[in-house]
Backbone:
């Protein structure tokens, strides 16, 4: 099967405006937080969205997803609820390219003392698009376990949580504080890639 960030191939749109994400290593003063609990109405919409995603999956992957614990499914739904941009066309690789562009724009805003650019870019990064079929189809089958996916809570807070904190700091004129969070976001991205993607371009066909 495909590797979430290794093969970088992704799935279809989740019709509704809700979410998923990835990040790691919580920074100083930022404990790994569970995403906010969706309202009952949101939860119903998210469950419909997840069912639509499962219908797009190959049988072996769909079986793994259905076999996840209720706690893991709730975590995924809570993460999904933080995103309102979904695509029925682009892949996870496309999403990562967009995230990288927002990351560079966020840094440019900090370096040029432009709080609006830094804040807007950080918020776009935190609310990145959800690719076709969600995140799970881009992971290796061996990654679709309760133990592995439980890491998404800290990943989410490290990357998206700190991006939101950076945006708030920039808007308050605390550009030094915003700059201090860039490293935490970067560490989250790197940690998530190490767990799920591996080294890009490495071929199993080379000795």
Residues:
């Amino acid at each position: 099967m495909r590797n979430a960030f290794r093969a970088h191939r992704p799935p279809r749109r989740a019709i509704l405006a809700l979410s998923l994400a990835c990040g790691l290593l919580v920074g100083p003063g930022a404990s790994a937080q569970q995403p906010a609990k969706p309202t009952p109405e949101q939860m119903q919409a998210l469950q419909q969205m997840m069912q639509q995603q499962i219908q797009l999956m190959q049988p072996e992957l769909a079986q793994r997803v259905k076999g996840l614990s209720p706690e893991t499914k709730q975590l995924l739904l809570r993460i999904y609820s933080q995103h309102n941009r979904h695509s029925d066309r682009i892949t996870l690789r496309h999403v990562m390219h967009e995230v990288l562009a927002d990351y560079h724009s966020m840094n440019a805003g900090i370096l040029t003392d432009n709080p609006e650019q830094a804040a807007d870019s950080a918020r776009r990064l935190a609310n990145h698009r959800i690719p076709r079929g969600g995140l799970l189809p881009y992971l290796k089958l061996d990654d679709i376990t309760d133990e592995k996916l439980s890491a998404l809570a800290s990943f989410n807070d490290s990357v998206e949580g700190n991006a939101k904190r950076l945006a708030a700091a920039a808007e308050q004129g605390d550009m030094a504080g915003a700059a201090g969070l860039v490293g935490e976001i970067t560490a989250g991205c790197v940690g998530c890639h190490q767990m799920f993607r591996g080294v890009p371009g490495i071929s199993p066909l080379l000795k």
User: Anything to note?
Assistant: The longest helix spans residues 175-196.
